[in-house]
From TrEMBL:
Residues 152-384 form the Sigma-54 factor interaction domain. This is Sigma-54 dependent transcriptional regulator. CDD domains: AAA, REC. SUPFAM superfamilies: CheY-like, Homeodomain-like, P-loop containing nucleoside triphosphate hydrolases. Residues 6-120 form the Response regulatory domain. The keyword Phosphoprotein applies. Keywords: ATP-binding, DNA-binding, Nucleotide-binding, Phosphoprotein, Transcription, Transcription regulation. PANTHER family: PTS-DEPENDENT DIHYDROXYACETONE KINASE OPERON REGULATORY PROTEIN-RELATED, TRANSCRIPTIONAL REGULATORY PROTEIN. The modification 4-aspartylphosphate is found at D55. It comes from Gaopeijia maritima. The keyword Transcription regulation applies. InterPro entries: AAA+_ATPase, AAA_lid_NorR, CheY-like_superfamily, Homeodomain-like_sf, HTH_Fis, P-loop_NTPase, Sig_transdc_resp-reg_receiver, Sigma_54_int.
Length: 482
């Protein structure tokens, strides 16, 4: 270390407190010990500590009391909370209050060393960046840009709070469970967490649990050994092994088969992985889990689509993204942003038109069932069809344009009349095939390729959609590009 860092160790267990203190002293830290919460609060009021390692449950003032006092007085300090009984509520509350990370008891000396070393690195990065604390009070466009999309840029306080929480939790290894409707940006938040975490240079592995057929899910997630099943000509590494050291994003977790959820829970508990067909432990993986669903998790548990124990294991820090219709400030902001973005892409050199007050009111009043994804598509469509030299009015926007069937002047769908030259049964089959292809393409685009979401939109189960695709020799990728 270039300088000596001060550390406050607070725990009412004399043996543990002394062990931690002596271990940190051996690495050159200036360590102060305290066994009671109220005395620790007094210490924090008198002097600043670079790092605080505090037991969450203390006699007198609690670890949360010390955390709040320390962060309020010295925002650059890093507070690590030790606890043998972590709960979802306490974890979430502590992270929101500014805790750097949790140290679950019992812990090893190596775990302590790594966590404190990360706290030191974070302090040095903050100072190098000239920041009072590595937590911004608003969004950072350059950082958002780094995850490949502008969708995190926000004006609403609700979304700014979410980004702030995501930035705080990013510095930890805590599991995150993100909920929200389709199109609200759950994967963007997950990417944002990974991009701002110490794992940013390690693997980022997104998994759409709804897009992998049930028969392949176990092998995809856990890998398999040679000869595990017909066609397994060689051993294969699963996605969990691929993500080891980095972050695994489990999108639409409630669509994962319950049997696979049970096996995943075992990996979460001990980090030990057994490939399909193996009789031994094949790997020990160390993964940061981020999960998401557009369902109500409690309802999914009641419907036996989501294991309760897995949900609470992953839900250390819950993040809920409200729908776009509840964030009118973001509708205004994103509308103007996407107008500039798509105008530059599709009509370079032409002056960018303005959105009239009527157009903005029209956009804000729409319900946006497809959320940000729908808004983006509507604005892009408007850019393509807009007349040059005219500001955009409500008539510019076609909220039903994407994926609609062609309409004739009398309001009826356009039909390929060449089919009428075929016999009845052939024409009917051809029309049905065309309809099924176009319908599947439409609902898959609306569901962003998520088969479970598309099935819910269609009012059928996933197997029905797969059966149609197999019958018509259709591939999901081709339908999305149609």
């Amino acid at each position: 270390m270039d300088r000596q860092y001060s550390v406050l160790v607070v725990d009412d267990d004399d043996t543990l407190r002394e062990t931690v203190a002596q271990y940190l002293q051996s690495f050159g830290f200036d360590v102060t010990r305290e066994g009671r919460g109220e005395k620790a609060v007094e210490l924090v009021r008198r002097r600043r500590f670079d790092i605080l390692v505090i037991d969450l449950y203390l006699p007198g003032s609690s670890g949360m009391d010390i955390l709040v006092e320390a962060v309020e007085r010295y925002p650059e300090s890093k507070v690590v909370l030790m606890t043998g009984n972590p709960s979802v509520e306490s974890s979430h509350r502590a992270l929101e209050a500014g805790a750097f990370d949790f140290l679950p008891k019992p812990f090893s000396a190596t775990h302590l060393e790594i966590l404190v070393d990360r706290a030191v690195q974070s302090i040095e990065e903050d100072r190098a960046a000239g920041s009072a604390k590595g937590v911004a009070t608003g969004t950072d466009p350059d950082l958002v840009e780094s995850v490949g999309d502008h969708g995190l840029l926000a004006e609403s306080r609700a979304l700014k709070n979410i980004v702030d929480l995501a930035r705080r939790v990013a510095r930890t290894d805590a599991s995150v469970f993100i909920t929200g409707e389709s199109g609200t940006g759950k994967e963007l938040i997950a990417q944002f967490i990974h991009a701002n975490s110490p794992r940013r240079d390690k693997p980022w592995v997104p998994v759409n649990c709804a897009a992998i057929p049930e028969s392949l899910m176990e092998s995809e997630m856990f890998g398999h050994v040679e000869g595990a099943f017909t066609g397994a000509n060689r051993a294969k590494e699963g996605l969990l092994e691929t993500a080891s050291g980095g972050s695994l994003f489990l999108d639409e977790l409630a669509e994962m088969p319950m049997s696979i959820q049970a096996k995943l829970l075992r990996v979460l508990q001990d980090g030990v992985l057994r490939r399909v067909g193996s009789t031994r432990t094949d790997a020990v993986v160390e993964v940061r889990f981020i999960a998401a669903t557009n369902r109500d998790p409690q309802q999914a548990i009641e419907d036996t689509l989501l294991r309760k124990d897995l949900y609470y294991r992953l839900r250390v820090v819950p993040i809920h993204i409200p729908p776009l219709r509840e964030r009118p400030e973001d509708i205004r902001y994103l509308s103007e942003h996407y107008l500039d973005r798509f105008w530059t892409r599709h009509r370079p050199g032409e002056p960018v038109p303005s959105l009239t007050d009527g157009a903005m009111s029209f956009l804000v009043s729409h319900d946006w069932p497809g959320n940000v994804r729908e808004l983006r598509n509507v604005i892009e469509h408007a850019v393509v069809v807009a007349e040059p030299g005219h500001d955009m009015s409500p008539s510019t926007f076609d909220l039903g344009a994407a994926g609609d069937l062609p309409i004739a002047r009398n309001g009826a769908p356009v039909v390929d009349r060449s089919l009428f030259r075929l016999d009845y049964h052939s024409a009917r089959e051809e029309m049905l095939a065309n309809f099924e292809r176009d319908y599947l393409a439409y609902i898959l685009r609306e569901a962003d390729g998520n088969m479970s979401s598309a099935a819910r939109m269609a009012g059928v189960d996933r197997t029905t959609l797969y059966r149609i695709m197999e019958k018509r020799n259709l591939r999901r990728r081709d339908l999305l590009e149609a």
